[in-house]
Amino acid sequence: MRRPRSGSIVLLASLLILPAAPAFAGEPARVPVRGLDGTRSTHVVLDGTDTGPADPAAQVTAQVFLAGDARKLAGYARAVSDPRDPRYGHFLTPEETRARFGPAQDRIDAVSSWLRGTGLSVVSAGSRAVVAQGTVAAAAAAFGTRFRTFTYYGFPYRAAVDPITVPAAVGPDVLTVTGLTVATGSRPAGPPPGRGSRAAARSAAPVSPCPDHYGDTPAPELPSAYGHPVQWAPCGYTPRQVRDAYGITGTGLTGKGVTIGIVSIGNEINTLPDANRFAADHGEPAFAPGQFTAYVPPDARPEEASGEFAMDVQAAHALAPEADIAFVVGSRARYGDDVLDAIVQIVDRHLADVVSGSIIVGSTPGYAPDAVLAYERAFQEAAVEGITVTFASGDSGGGGTEDGGRSVEYPASSPWVTAVGGTTLAIGRGGSYLWEIGWATDETYLSDDGGSWVTAPPGYQGKASGGGTSTVFPQPFYQRGVVPGSFAGTPPMRTLPDVAALADPDLCLLVGETDYDFDGGLSYKVGNGGGTSLSSPAFAGVEALLVQEHGPLGFANPALYARPRWAYHAIGENPAGTPDTVAFAVEQRGFVDLITPGQYADSNLVHAPGYDTVTGLGSPTRKLLDSFRRRP
What we know:
Elements: E1 30-32, H1 43-47, E2 49-53, E3 59-66, H2 70-81, H3 94-101, H4 105-117, E4 121-125, E5 129-135, H5 136-143, E6 147-152, E7 155-160, E8 165-167, E9 174-178, E10 182-183, E11 231-232, H6 239-245, E12 259-264, E13 267-268, H7 271-281, E14 292-295, E15 302-303, H8 308-319, E16 324-329, H9 338-349, E17 354-357, E18 362-364, H10 372-384, E19 388-392, E20 401-402, E21 405-406, E22 408-410, E23 418-427, E24 433-438, E25 440-446, E26 453-455, E27 463-464, E28 468-474, H11 485-488, E29 493-496, E30 499-502, E31 510-516, E32 522-528, H12 532-550, H13 557-562, E33 568-569, E34 584-588, E35 591-596, E36 607-608, E37 611-612, E38 619-620, H14 622-627
Parallel strand pairs: 11-34, 12-16, 12-17, 13-15, 14-16, 17-19, 19-23, 23-30
Antiparallel strand pairs: 1-8, 2-6, 3-5, 3-9, 4-5, 6-7, 7-10, 18-22, 20-21, 23-24, 25-26, 25-27, 25-35, 28-29, 31-32, 33-38, 34-35, 36-37
Helix pairs in contact: 2-10, 7-8, 8-12, 9-10
């Protein structure tokens, strides 16, 4: 799971509960810039160390995002997404969307004029945002706030410390303001984090035979577990095996004619060569000329090593091998937020029919970016234009504790996004689907003498699909009657994930990537992908098949939740400490681990029939694909 670079993390600054900057007689009336209900003020100010007032001559770049007709946009986005509404599927072009729901030119001009009047310079002005630059002193006057400097976890920040306000005359036009609370430098260098207290690998450690499927390769050389012999796990699945297991093979669906957009913040230049090399080596179709298109901004630095985003491309290609791929690299130049920029590029130019993002930009409650409302507008516009958006639910289980409650990742927690959780998937001989368990794995290590399994050392963190309940977004209409009330809470709130696909890096899809060697050189390697960073593009591949079969889906959640429960694999739990407990062995670089899926105790994830906060509705099946088939 990728998080933006520290310099691009913009923290929520518009809801600070602090004394406001003083007002003076004769000033025009001002109104607060409204943020998300229930979201707390930035941790930079509340939890950081105040280091004094900001330099009034320092430069600020502020993005003033515009509201347009937000209420009508949200209403129409729901209508075209709800199969029960007569306007379902009546999508608009980007130009029609801007004309119908975007701000009028006179309102863009009014916001621009106000900013210039405060001493700021307007860099750009469009239907999405007005971007202004100037000094801290001018920004303080424009937004009614003082600026101070802080250190937070070692990073220096400049932060607005009062509620952001704007003149009442432009209050209805302003959706949110970003760029006021930003990191202003790098964290001081320090020693890299250690792996833990685990001893070096033993030269005599057993070596996995790397079976090509799960279920019939016992490991008699290893200690038994839970009263039965241990199985060796495959060293990764081929794309064909995953298509077989999820019922895609034989449908005739390949994603042909559909474009999948991959949201990236890295210009990974070996993405296409790596994908084609992997395909050639594993009997898969390579990308045809014109099937892969990279949209790269001029300021994007080339990255020779592949990573998250190259894996995204291969996962989507594995499930929908004939779908086109739009690899969209975001830039911080326009909006100060590279993730938002990539999404906006796709929406404003309709670069894709289905979008996958394997990026976290914050969590709620806690570190939500102040651009959340700008993201929400972009997601609603995507729905209006018939674009399906998925995001990874995260790899941290039920999240950490923030402000007295459990936090969930954003953008996956947006009610306008399909949040994709993760599973541990067992694929047997001939691509058969054996079982699937929610991804929340516990690891134990093979002892030095090879005779027993040893508990992980202190500080070990298990691996688990992200999920939970938002404290910010109310329960969306499509979750009513499906998500148990015990999960949604009182009042009921948005719960995630919505769906799931394979994610366990110990039992997952093979990918091929150019990566750094220990000596600093680069070489191509094949190994397991994993995390919800893989499950999101994999499910996006499935959605591309649904679009091929059904036509544009737009926001998919209402249609996905309307399907009967038998359209999904019901993901089971793994009973602990019994002869039926599932466990398997993996070996990497001389280490042998026992993996027990579904048993990471600190994952904070819960199960119920028909829905859980590990895998949502479940994983895809042939029945799900057939349920979207056009009727004659």
